[in-house]
Amino acid sequence: MKKMNLINTLFVGVALSCLLPTTSQAETNSEMESLREEVRELKEMLLKQAKQTKSEVKSIQKDIKKIKPSQAFNEGDSRFKLAGYASLGYTEQEMSDGRFDTVQFSPIIQYSYKDKVFFVSELEYKIEADGSTTTALEYATTNVILNDNATLVVGKFLSPLGNFRQNIHPSWINKLASAPVGFGHDQAAPIADVGVQLRGGFDVGNIKTTYAAYMANGPELELNGAGDEIEAIESAGFTRDVDGEKVYGGRITILPFDNFEWGVSGAYGAVGLANESDRSYRAFGSDFSYKWKNLDLRGELIKQHVGALDSSVAPEKSTWTASYLQAAYNIPKTKYETVIRYSDLNSPHPDADQDQVALGVNYLFSANIIAKLSYELNNGLLNTATDSDRYMFQVSYGF
Amino acid sequence: MKKILMRTIFLAVTLSMLSTSPSFAEEKKTGDFVNGAKVWANTCNRCHNVRDPKEFSDSQWEMIMLHMRDRAGLTGEDTRDILKFLQNSN
Q1: Residue A188: its pLDDT value, please?
Q2: Which residues on chain A are in Cβ contact (under 8 Å) with B7?
Q3: DSSP codes, A88-123
Q4: Do A386 and A255 share a structural domain?
Q5: Contact A74/B59, CB-based, under 8 Å?
Q6: Which of A77, A241, A345, A391 is the most buried (most CB within 10 A)?
Q7: Which residues in chain A are closer than 8 Å to B69, comparing Cβ atoms?
Q8: Which helix (H) or strand (E) holds A215?
Q9: What is the extent of the structural domain holding B80?
Q10: What tens-digit pLDDT sequence spans chain A (399 residues)?
Q11: A395 in contact with B at a CB cutoff of 8 Å?
């Protein structure tokens, strides 16, 4: 009996001992499955986080890209910006040796208060032949934006008469290395004036128009060496008013269709020499520009007239007239541009009269960096600079 | 007499414009991108080669457009539209 019990006990014991490992394996399998699930979840979570991090990094990189150093101090109601242009040039003219004759830097300083008041000024630094540096305040105005159609401009402004002097003269804009004859300083086209100006634009139906009306001190007269003729009209922009009379003028433009502009300018008032009576002053101008595909056409006529005055040391009336016509063609799919311009100046003095055909080839490094090679065929008084052909090389950078 | 009359008329016109000037506190109006692109294409290249919108930041374009508004005789609306186009394209 005892023996039987022992055998039974042994059998149950062996059976139990066999059962025990079976139960442990199942638990292990279950745990393993659970662990696998957890690993899967963790993997998914990690992938999710990696995706999110990647997206966040991209977003931050985008934001960083947007932030430029200048913005750090430009944000706010009052803002500042420096713009301008610079040019370097070489000229070789008949009857003289070639020389690097142009080193010019014209910074334009801009301040604004909100989008209501804007101050802008252009300085000109230029190295002269003797190595000295001349500095000029080309213009300095405070512009108060009155409404969508009018801005009040106060200070020294570029003359609104015509288009070349106020908009095209910067070297990175002008497509030739020189200004058209008659459009330089103290020639037929007024340069600047000091006073007050109202300017802006209107839409008349589908037609755009612009206007500028001004009241200013006006130009001055310069006598020749002998003191008996008016040599030139100076319009550098004076804070004095020798004749005591203001000059009134303006310009209206109309844009009847895309890429075409036609402008008409006029001014009247008085000019005079010191200690003399006033004499009449009139100016008239007309200009156009047209852009068609790669072709750029523009032209302008400007005229200034000073009336006679019997009691003057220089009694004769005087008229200066200048005009130009220019075509520029950007060769498709290249950075090259060809230019041809005819310009003409008629003045009271034969030694100043000139007409010119200028040819140019330009290379555009970018829209604002241009290398210009120009050749001028000049026709003026024999054996003078106005009759000497010349070629010019210029590099201009607008910034 | 004539010159006094002329000065008076000029100043009167200027003052009348001032009276229509909106308050400085007025909320900024936003521009129209599509019209901005059109006006930009038709206006800027009348004088100079067009500049790449990417050349300047939003803030710099604001200053540039204030200057160009004066130079090109743009209306306020066209100025805002061009600005919108430039700022959305840089």
Answers
A1: 94
A2: 215, 246
A3: EEEEEETTS--EEEEEEEEEEEEEEETTTEEEEEEE
A4: yes
A5: yes
A6: A345
A7: 145, 151
A8: strand A207-216
A9: 30-90
A10: 455 566 666 665 555 555 554 556 778 888 888 888 888 888 888 888 888 888 887 887 777 666 555 544 556 889 999 999 999 999 999 988 899 999 999 999 999 998 899 999 999 999 999 999 999 999 999 999 999 999 999 999 999 999 999 999 999 999 999 999 999 988 999 999 999 999 999 999 989 999 999 999 999 999 998 889 999 999 999 999 988 899 999 999 999 999 999 999 999 999 988 889 999 999 999 999 999 999 999 999 999 999 999 999 999 999 999 999 999 999 999 999 999 999 999 999 988 999 999 999 999 999 999 999 999 999 999 988 899 999 999 999 999
A11: no
Question: What number is the ipTM of this complex?
Answer: 0.83
**Which residues numbered 258-297 in A keep a CB inside 8 Å of some CB on B?**
258-259, 261, 289, 291, 296
Read out DSSP for B2-37?
Answer: HHHHHHHHHHHHHHHHHHTPPPTTSPPPP--HHHHH
Judge if A22 and A93 occupy the same domain: no
The torsion defined by the Cα of A164, A291, A259 and B84, in degrees rounded to 10, comes to -90
- Residue range B9-20, pLDDT digits in tens: 666 666 666 655
* Closest CA of chain B from A147, distance in Å: 5
Q: Does B8 touch chain A (CB under 8 A)?
A: no
Q: Using only C-alpha atoms, what is the Rg of chain B? A: 17
Number of domains, chain A? 2
Domain shared by A52 and A175, yes or no: no
B57 CB within 8 Å of a chain A CB: yes
Is the minimum CB–CB distance between B16 and chain A shorter than 8 Å?
Answer: no
Cα distances (angstroms) measured from residue A60 to each of A55, A63, A66, A70, B56: 9, 5, 10, 19, 20
The answer to whether A70 contacts B24, with C-beta atoms less than 8 Å apart, is no
What is the CATH classification number for the domain harbouring A284? Answer: 2.40.160.10
Instruction: Flag whether B40 is in a domain.
Output: yes
Chain A nearest-CA residue for B88: A66
CATH code of B54's domain: 1.10.760
Give the number of C-alpha atoms closer than 13 A to the C-alpha of residue A326, restricted to the C-beta side.
32
Classified as helix, coil or strand, B45 is: helix
**Tally of structural domains, chain B:** 1
Answer yes or no: do A112 and B66 touch at CB < 8 A.
yes
% of chain A at pLDDT higher than 70: 91
